Amino acid sequence: MTQMRWLELLSTVRLGSNKHSSEQARSPFHKDYDRIIFSQSFRQLNRKTQVHPLTQHDGIHTRLTHSLEVSCIGRSLGMLAAEKIKDALPMWISPADVGAIIQAACLAHDIGNPPFGHAGEYAIREWFDDASHTDFLRDLSPEEEADVRQFEGNAQGLRLLTKIDYHPNAGGMRLTFATLGAYLKYPWLSKTIASQGNTPASQRAKFGCYQAEKEILKQIAEQLGLIQLGPDHYCRHPLTYLLEAADDMCYALIDLEDGIILNMLSYEEVEPIFLSLLGDYSVPIELSMPDTTWQQKIAALRGRVMKRLVEEVTTAFARQHTEILSGQLKGSLLQYCSADIEMGINRAKELARDKIFEHPHKAGLEIIAHQSLQNILDAFIPLTTPNKTLSFKEQRLMSILHRAGAHFGISHYDNIMQVLDIISKFSDHQAYNLAQELQGNKVGFF
Question: Which residues are CB-contacts of 13 (< 8 A; sequence separation ≥ 6)?
């Protein structure tokens, strides 16, 4: 049975860099974390939707606060998992190193998401699906067409990390291969449109790399020794399973608090889910104190539940270690924990789906969000046609793209991808304001 090796999986070599400098204070993986957190793309997550678009409430999660919380959980998972498999790790790797790799990868896990969250992804996909826009796809290859019709935040994130921020087309952030590997939840290319058929934009299979970054994916896989499962299709890096678990834990449980703040849920609806996940842990005393607020109660519950989940997930990781290294683990680590954990996580997701995702207020804002991105695409995508003669208005629109860093050439695909790069970096409010300006409703955005 072919197995990946930790010696290669924890590579400190940096994409796009030949330097081999070392520092006493920081490991290479801590340096990855710092590069991500100081990047402009990460900063833009501050006003991007986690669940609730265009929110004005300061206490609601954004992509930035969500990513910070996921990175904290990821670090704990990485350190404890490393302790449990330490005999299999290279001598020079400490649990803190493994924790730092996952912490950095978790910090970046949503960095490629467009404004308005998943509603933004659907808006972009549906614009290119529209029959009236097929002329913009006419000279693209089937693979390139699949990329633009299936805009994917994970693939956009890889593009930002490896090609756009810091060192354009020369390694991007120049992160270690270990961190890039842990980031890659879906180390394969998009499927062709033919394989997608008439699948709705909201149900298309996820992927982690566009055609434009195909060689970068291959370089990452070869450097780390990821097992190849098919053409341009590799198995996951083992640490990606811990990243995924951290994201699921935060998304399913902590984000319920936003529903309470926005009066979409009551604390009484959420408390039983947390209690069901305590296992053998005792019920926090805060729940029986007469003057305790719901915020204090849920914080006490959250702390104990997360501690149990970290223990369970890392035990599952150690138990499935051989299968993971063979690239054969099916599903997520949460499925290999105690049965009550998967049930509790699913209950939390069902509650969010029924009471939050279908809430009329959220639906109304998503309609606004969807139309905002459609307006922006209506304005900018027609400019991507190579050698196009521009009208006065189009020249003004092109000047906006130039200021944002676009430099169009003879490749229609590359031009479209540059527009998507710019749009995906917008915060919710930037995208909304620009869409208003393009409709003549607001002046002075730029």
Answer: 176, 177, 223
The predicted pLDDT at position 156 comes to: 96
Phi, psi of 229 (to 5 degrees): -105, -15
Q: How far apart are CA 3 and CA 327, in angstroms?
A: 7
State the residue for tokens 């801590």.
30
Alpha helix positions (H), 353-427: 360-380, 392-403, 412-425
Residue 330 CB: number of other CB atoms within 10 A? 8
| CA separation for the pair 381, 75 (Å, rounded) | 40
Among 75, 95, 213, 222, smallest CA distance to 154 is for 213
First-to-last alpha carbon distance for the chain, in angstroms, is 57
Looking at residue 53, its amino acid is: P
pTM of the model: 0.93
**Confidence grade of residue 202 (pLDDT, cut at 50, 70, 90):** low
- DSSP lists the bridge partners of residue 167 as 172
pLDDT of residue 194: 45
In Å, how far are 193, 269, 330, 342, 354 from 347, measured between CA atoms? Answer: 34, 11, 22, 9, 11
Instruction: Select from 250, 244, 301, 303 the least CA-distant residue to 276.
Output: 301
HSE at residue 436, side-chain half, CA atoms within 13 A, is: 14
Q: Which of 196, 184, 188 is nearest to 142 (CA)?
A: 196
Beta-carbon-side half-sphere exposure of residue 12 (alpha carbons within 13 Å): 17
Nearest to 63 by CA among 7, 112, 30: 112
The predicted-structure confidence for 266-285, as pLDDT tens digits, reads as follows: 999 999 999 999 988 889 99
Amino acid identity for residue 260 in this structure: I
* Residue 111 pLDDT exceeds 70: yes
Task: Select from 91, 97, 92 the least CA-distant residue to 79.
Answer: 97
> Which of 248, 243, 281 shows the shortest CA–CA distance to 81?
243
Is pLDDT at 193 greater than 70 in this prediction? no
